[in-house]
Amino acid sequence: MDGEEFRLRAKEVVDYMVNYQNTMKDRDVGPSLNILKTKVADLKKFIPPSPPMEGGESFKNIMSDVDSLIVPRLLVWDHPQFFAYFATGNSYPTILADMLSDIYNNIGFSWSSGPAVTELEMIMMDWWAQATNLPTHFLFQTHGGKGGGVIQCSSSDAAFMSIVSARERALEFLQKTYSGEYIEKYQLIKKLVGYTNRESHSCVQKGANLALVRLRVLTPNDNNQITGEILERAIAQDVRRGLVPFFVSAIIGTTGTTAYDNIWEIGAVCKRNPLIWLHVDCAYAGGSFVCEEFQYLYGPLDYADSMNMNANKWMLICYDCTGHWVRDRYTYTQGLVITPVYLSNEIPGIIDYRHWQIQLSRRFRSLKLWLMFRITGVKMLREYIRNHVRLAKYFEELILRDKRFEITSEVHLALVCTRLVGDDILTQHLVAFINALGKLHVTPAKDQGQYIMRLCVNYEFATKEHIEFGWKHIQECATEVINLQKQ
Ligand code: PLP
């Protein structure tokens, strides 16, 4: 494909994209029951097992396959009736930014491999931190220049990176203070123990497994919170067993119910145990920090050594874009600086983001933040978040009027957790039934051992009418499920 053909096809694709977006509401949110029933959702039947030796297929044919084979097998995450998971950011400005990133094709792993990639990212991480009122120690421009932020692909990367940095810091300390003969620092890994809430995202456990460190999963209180007392008790027990607490991953906005740990108390415990690295996962809830009223709901992040939030969840930025801020970038990266000759074109004192992440190569993702902030703006983001939270409260109000349902946890943000009164099996059947019909999509979770249905207001332009439409459908499905159960 040459440039002139690209110009033509790109215009067609942009038309296609806008039409797709405009007609989305007329489609089902999930693959239709027909596809599920007949199991034709099996692409292997339609796509040859090996690639063509000759290219040159017409673009028209390919787009026709996209429409007939791919689209019916997609879940429509931006659909007005998509209440599953959490919001998945998307917006035209950020799609344009991704297009620019693709054409620049700058793999900015170091400053010298594309200075603007690094410099814009540093500026954007400070903009983003200010827009969400993060403590100043996370900014490049303050705190004697020790802190800073990086765009990771995902919160899972952020959790893993924080664990590895905490591990390296703790091992260095243990090795230096070890009283016996010389010991190789990795022999001391078995002494380390980290902590997290049972309700934290599974990525924390995955990160600990990858980093080969012990993670103690703490049982939260009835509000799904870890308190200072719970953490302190666990630490004391482990210290008595000869272990060394080195890491806590606290959470603001659990995936199941948007519960949040007591950050005030946890922060104070970590302060008394300076070897502990406090990481705070705000993957979803972080978006709400653009509004003052939500920042103060959870408590300060002043003690946090690192935190993360996904702009590609609740900040109208298309995947991927996770912000990961650290208090001390030197400590964060010191275990990860490896410089072979082919990467030795570094300039002293300049940030090289390759040390801040697992992979070497990186996209020019800060363009998405730059375009979003300049075109959408913080005020519009606030309105978007507030609208979702208002609508979640409205959803809750509607649900409370139907005595067949109960609300299972407080609605803090845009997530409503509910279940059918009675045995778990009823709600399990309801979730399965709703998703099989494909008109609306939801996700289940467990809250204090009970099966629940999560309803997250996700649609960018959601209105009361969308909520009412969705609720009516859920009620109809509930009637079917209850009747079937009686038979
Ligand atoms: N943390 C929380 C609270 C989440 O809800 C999620 C995903 O929904 C994650 C972490 C993992 O996010 P990612 O897909 O960016 O790794």
TrEMBL record:
Its cofactor is pyridoxal 5'-phosphate. GO terms for biological process: amino acid metabolic process; carboxylic acid metabolic process. Pfam families: Pyridoxal_deC. Coiled coil: none annotated. The modification N6-(pyridoxal phosphate)lysine is found at residue 313. Keywords: Lyase, Pyridoxal phosphate. The keyword Lyase applies. One of its GO terms (cellular component) is cytoplasm. GO terms for molecular function: carboxy-lyase activity; pyridoxal phosphate binding. The keyword Lyase applies. Belongs to the group II decarboxylase family. PANTHER family: FI02861P (PTHR11999:SF76), GROUP II PYRIDOXAL-5-PHOSPHATE DECARBOXYLASE (PTHR11999). This is Aromatic-L-amino-acid decarboxylase.
